[in-house]
Every structure is written in C-alpha cells, then in structure tokens.
Amino acid sequence: MLAAPALAAMPSGRVAAQPTLGEYLIQGATVLTMVPGTPMLADHDVHVRGRQVVAVGPRITAPAAERIDARGAIVLPGLVDTHWHVWTTLLGNLADSSSEASGYFAMTGRLGRRFGPAEMRLAALLAAADAIDHGITTVHDWCHNIRSPDHARAALAGLRESGLRARFSYGATRETPFDRPLDAADFTRLHDAWDEWSSEGRLTLGLGWRGVMATVEDRPAAVPEAVWRADLALARDRGLPVSVHANNSAANQGHIRELAGRGLLGRDMQLVHAVNAQADEIDAVAREGASVSLAPSSEFAVGFGVPPVAALRRAGVAISASIDTPALVGAADLLRELRIIQGLANAQTGNEMAMKPLDALAIGTRGGAAALGLGEITGTLAPGKRADLIMVRRDARALQPHADPATLILRSVRPSDIRLVMVDGTILKRDGQLTRIDRSLLATEVAGTSARLFT
Fold first, then answer.
1. What domains lie within the chain, and their CATH numbers?
2. pTM
3. 232-245 pLDDT tens trace
C-alpha cells in the first residue's frame, strides 16, 4: 500500500484544506428539485446544514445560516457522471485522428504506460477541476490504468482531495492479457481498508469488469471463464457494484446476449455504451434491471456508432450519461451529452416531444445517481439528501428570463454561468471560482507533467 508520506510528496494541484462544514440558506431561487412529480418551485429557499439538505421551501427561517442570494438564479441537483476514465483527462484532446499513432487507443496505450502514481493523482485533480467548473458533483472513475497498487491509491488520493463525490471502479489495464485475472490481493486490501478512503461515504468502491468478451480496439477475445468468474466474484462476494463495457463496437457484438445467457445481468451491473445492443439484448437488460451509461460524443468520435436511445427508453432501460474520456471529447461538459441524448431520442422517434428537456436533465441528475446506487443520497434536492447542488445565474449572460428553466440549463449554460457548486455541504465553486483547487498552480503542474510524458 502507498504510504502516507509518499502521497504527501506528490504534486497536489495546491488543494486547499477541507473547510469546516457550515450552514447555508440559499434564498429566492427557482428550484428544480428533480423529484418526480414536483413542479418547478419559484422563489424558494434551500436550507443546508452540515452535509445535508434540511429543507426546501418558501421563506425559510434559519437565523444561524449564512445567506446566499439566489434571486434570478436556478438551483438544481449537481450533475452525475456515470463513466469517466479519469486518468485520460491528462491527455485531453490528444486523440486528434490525424494519424493511426494519434488515434485514441494507440495514443492512450502508449502514454498510459508512462504514467506513474503522480500522474494518476494529478489527472484526478485536473478532472475534478473541470467537473466542478461544469457543475458535475459526482463522477464514476472507471480506472483502467492501474499499473501498481500505488497507481490506484494515487488516483483515489486525487479524488478524495478534490471534494467530489465519486465511485472508483478498479479495472485491468487494456494490455492486461485476457487470461490474467485482476490483482485480487490488492483489490481485497483496498476494500478492507476502505474507511481510509471513503471520506464519510463520499467515495465508494466498485469493479471495472472486462466481462466475458473483452475487446481492445478491434481485437475481440473471449475471457476464460475461470478469469471472468474470479474477477466478478471480487465485487459480488462483497456486495459491490459492477460496470462493464458491452456491445461498444462492431467487434463487441453479442456481449450482452452472452451475459444474459449466463445469468450475469443484474441490478448491480452497469453496461457502458451498448451502441450495438439488439432488441433481445435490450429486453434482457430491462428485465434484469441493469442500467446503461451512454457517452455519445466519444461514441461518435471513436467510431463506435449511435446509441439506441429510443429503443432503450421504449424497453424501460434506465440510462445515464457520461464524459468517458477528455482525450476524445475535451471539456467535461455533461450537458453536451444530455443534449445529444435528447436529440437522439427525438430523432429516432421522429417526435420533437419524445424527450423533454426536463427528462434529459433527470438522466443527468437522479438517473445518474440511481445508476451508481446513490439514489438515496444524491440526485434530487429533498430534505435528508446530501447537499450536492449547483446554482446557475440567468443574468450572467442575459440568459432569456422567460425560458423554461430546464430548457435553459440544458441548452445554454456555460461554466461561467454556474456560480455555485456544493458537494456534501462543502462549497467547491463560489462566484464562479473554484475554492479548493488552485487552477493556475494546477495548470503549471500539468504543463510540467505533459513535458515529461512527451520526452
């Protein structure tokens, strides 16, 4: 296990110390609670004490609370990303398709081998800074660059320091032979010592599983049953969630059918991409209660295909949205992914009303929380939920005051419009500025690390 002194010696992005939890009264907002059946609440307050939302209502009295003026603003739950290879954030925009060598798989494979623990931690902080700036309060770090136990713990250290809520899914590197199981001993050590990482439950552990039909680029291969069973048991024997890339390319067709035929689908399983899922596979996913995470920007960019949004929704499959990899998509703009998902739902049905903006926002808030098993904790603004929220000012860029708030959020909001981001009751962005991560010092560290990666 990575020792604490070694962690402390790594670049940190100059993260500020965790502040003392306070009490806040966010006053006079238009509140989108994202609670099903709850309409938009005009001129409402949100009362936060410690880590929790205490109340949502008009003219709340809280004498001890710090007032935050939200008149002219929209307050809603923070966005929830459900699949992000966080380490690739340090390789943002480098998959430029100018040559085979600069393609996503070749480039990340080549540079990923040069990552040490320090790069893993720095990537997590860089990802967190971009996530917070874009209103994302929960991320799912699908970590497939764990080259040593120290790599895993360094990535976790960055997530823990950032203040974000996160699931860390422990996965094999892409070059790990298909007949080699995960490092069960290290996974077990990490699980058994999870109290050291959980930050009062803010971080959770999961499995980034290869499934039964792993692919790397266009090279499919069956994973030996002894291997996939051993890996899967690491999670299911401990009651941990499982995430697997399935039907994500032309080379990975039929994977969901194989999972269903072996009785492996379940409510604890998230399927990533599923762009080639056929009708029988979609029905199986719906029947067994698994969910699907979609990342349309990266799916388009890398040539995987078009996610079957309308078919998934018709079958009743729970879908969520993800960043996937900044190497392909650049900024951590989850609203971009939700806009595309809405567009696909409408285009695939020929119906402008098939998915409304509020439906798309639900996918990126309570839908994402449910997909990560966090539906009782976050994803809506309600008393007793953790205080994961964002505040968007409509007057920041003269955003149309008469526009439907959900439509405005989905279509027009930029990071500069997001004035407040709170996670677990802690303010991570205020007045448009990050409060824990020093962006300029982080940029300096990233520049130095990038120079080392390319020499």
1. 23-78+380-434 (2.30.40.10), 81-371 (3.20.20.140)
2. 0.95
3. 999 999 999 999 99
